[in-house]
Design a protein that fits this description.
By secondary structure, the protein is an alpha/beta fold. It has three domains: 3-157, PAS domain (Beta-Lactamase); 168-323, 2-Layer Sandwich (Alpha-Beta Plaits), CATH 3.30.70.270; 341-587, Alpha-Beta Barrel (TIM Barrel). 44% of the residues lie in helices and 22% in strands. It is built from 22 helices and 21 strands. Helix 1 (3-9) packs across helix 5 (93-104). The protein is elongated. Residues 192-325 form the GGDEF domain. Residues 334-588 form the EAL domain.
Length: 590
């Protein structure tokens, strides 16, 4: 709290220099009135929570109110007559003395009329921040000065907390994304190279689902402690959110050196994490981008590292990928395709085609599989391979998935109304649908909306999708079976399911992949596998459908193996509902 500093800064407290003219000596009555006024003023000063202090021209304290004495830790009498320096930190006293001397000499103070924030000191020697408003005056005989003081310790702490919230991840204490990008911008503005690594924990969602969020949070905190020990001096670490961390290597533009650091991070995950008595083995995927080659500004460099991470995760994780420009071209193409798909959905360009499923012995239809197509205005009818890979990685998968479910249920109701016997509708689920918490509610809603019996709907999932998230997939399937909906394992034999998984999941149908069917007559191993699958499915009470039947020979061979049902071009290519309606009487044996 110094007049000298405040005056130089030109931003200090309200100063009200008063040139008071003093008249003839006061009468007795006037002196009495003045005394009464002084008592009232003193009582008024003690009533406020603001600290009030005045000093004489020698800098000695002339008056303090009760709040000031309490604020500085003194009894009031201990302050009166003492130099004001007792509340000024020693490091600030010399500059205060210079400013005070000029004020008492009558120099005009340029303090701007605003409160300022400075430091004061208590009786016990503790410094603390205050907000100070100064006032200087002349009473006709001598100069004087006063101050209105407010303790702003709580406000400073609150501001500090808000600053931390704005720049720090609360769970780990690391930088947050905003602060990380800010630091990166400073580095790049200085013209220095920089490397950004985005680190994602493989299978972290499984940890949360299996062990709970408390264990998951502990893992994140452990990673926050472990990562910095694997990094060179000067590296900055941030948590971007979820299980994603970022590392900035300032003044590093060498890809080989960046790769070496990234490998060190992966090695940090080689040691198991012990949390709450549980040993958890985790791995990491890392995307790396180096400036200026991979980005001219901070946002572009982070985006490049993100794209590299997507590539690292796409192969199943446990990978390290360095950014290259082909990734951005691929990402842009996927984004453009997703945008076009959204337009296609709104414009009703997406349609469902239906492929019959028949009993081999009679050739009579008992079901159809709904297959999505895109009636593109320029490119014609597109098969799923042209757009599903981009769709499955986007949030649009859920919207299109729910549309597919609703449309298939609508057609199933119409089809069964026109058929002499029940015909089941098979609908493929996207991974996002199988893991959606409201899957069962969505299915029930579609069934009720179109008046379709639950037993006439069978949802198809590939074994790979189901096993990717074992527990959640199992729970979802069990809920669907409780309401009567069938569950089919599609393309069985091409994924990684163990035979015991057929017992674990509440399946109704096993669909044998076409890869085992095409060369049944010439490949004894394919025939042996197909025979075993058919027998096992029959023993487990599952319906068995062989996919990809195109010839009489394949059909006859499957019939000899005991396969009851088939699907393929021999019985009809995927067709529109209008076409299906026309051939339905023939397929129904009419």
């Amino acid at each position: 709290m110094t007049l000298d500093n405040l005056e130089r800064e030109g931003s200090a407290g309200a100063v009200c220099p008063c040139n008071i003219e003093v008249g003839p000596p006061a009468s007795t009555g006037e002196r009495h009135a003045a005394g009464v006024d002084a008592i009232v003023a003193a009582n008024f000063a003690d009533a406020t929570k603001l600290a009030l202090i005045s000093v004489d021209p020698r800098g000695q304290i002339r008056f303090v109110n009760r709040a000031a004495a309490v604020l500085f830790g003194y009894v009031r009498e201990e302050m009166i007559g003492r130099p004001v320096e007792i509340i000024i930190p020693e490091r600030l006293r010399s500059s205060h003395a210079r400013g005070f001397a000029r004020a008492m000499a009558g120099d005009e103070l340029n303090l701007g009329g605003k409160a300022v924030e400075v430091y004061a000191i208590r009786k016990d020697g503790a410094e603390f921040p205050i907000e100070l408003t100064l006032c200087a005056w002349h009473d006709g005989r001598e100069m004087g000065a006063g101050a209105v003081i407010k303790d702003i310790t709580e406000r400073r702490e609150r501001d500090s907390r808000l600053l931390r919230l704005a720049s720090q991840d609360l769970l780990t204490g690391l930088h947050n994304r905003s602060r990380f990008v800010e630091i990166l911008k400073i580095e790049m503005a200085a013209g220095r190279p920089a490397t950004v690594l985005i680190v994602d924990i493989d299978g972290f969602q499984d940890v949360n689902d299996t062990h709970g969020h408390v264990v998951g949070d502990s893992i994140l905190q452990s990673v926050a402690v472990r990562l910095p020990h694997r990094l060179p001096a000067g590296a900055e670490v941030a948590r971007f959110g979820g299980d994603e961390f970022a590392v900035l290597l300032p003044n590093l533009g060498d890809r080989a050196a960046a790769t070496a650091v990234a490998e060190g991070i992966r090695e940090a995950f080689a040691m198991p994490f012990e949390v709450g008595g549980q040993i958890l083995d985790l791995s990491a995927s890392i995307g790396v981008a180096v400036s200026p080659l991979d980005g001219d500004d901070a946002d572009e460099l982070v985006a490049s590292a993100d794209l590299a991470l997507v590539q690292a995760k796409s192969g199943g994780g446990r990978a390290l990928r360095m950014y290259d420009r082909a990734m951005r071209n691929e990402a842009n193409a996927r984004r453009a395709l997703r945008d076009e798909l959204l337009r296609a959905l709104r414009s009703r360009e997406l349609v469902l085609y239906y492929q019959p499923q028949v009993h081999i012995a009679s050739g009579i239809i008992f079901g159809v599989e709904a297959l999505i197509r895109w009636q593109h205005p320029q490119r014609g009818l597109l098969l799923p391979g042209a757009f599903l890979p981009a769709l499955e990685r986007s949030s649009l998968a859920l919207e299109i998935g729910w549309w597919t479910l609703d449309e298939a249920c609508r057609v199933a109701a119409l089809m069964n109304a026109a058929s002499p016997h029940a015909i089941k509708m098979g609908v493929n689920l996207f991974p996002a649908q199988l893991h959606a918490p409201h899957l069962c509610a969505k299915v029930s809603e579609a069934l009720e909306k179109h008046g379709l019996a639950a037993g006439l709907l069978e949802l198809e999932v590939t074994e790979t999708i189901a096993l990717h998230d074992d527990d959640r997939s199992l729970e979802a399937m069990e809920m669907l079976r409780k309401i009567g909906v069938g569950i089919a394992f599609d393309d069985f034999g091409t994924g990684y399911a163990s035979l015991s998984s057929l017992q674990r999941y509440p399946l109704t149908t096993l669909k044998i992949d076409r890869g085992f069917i095409s060369d049944l007559a010439t490949k004894p191993r394919d025939a042996a596998i197909t025979r075993a699958l058919i027998a096992m499915s029959r023993e487990m009470g599952l319906e068995t459908i062989a996919e990809g039947i195109e010839t009489l020979e394949q059909e006859a061979f499957l019939h000899s193996l005991g396969c009851p049902a088939a699907q393929g071009y021999k019985y009809g290519k995927p067709m529109s509902f209008e076409t299906l309606e026309r051939v339905l009487p023939q397929l129904c044996g009419g």
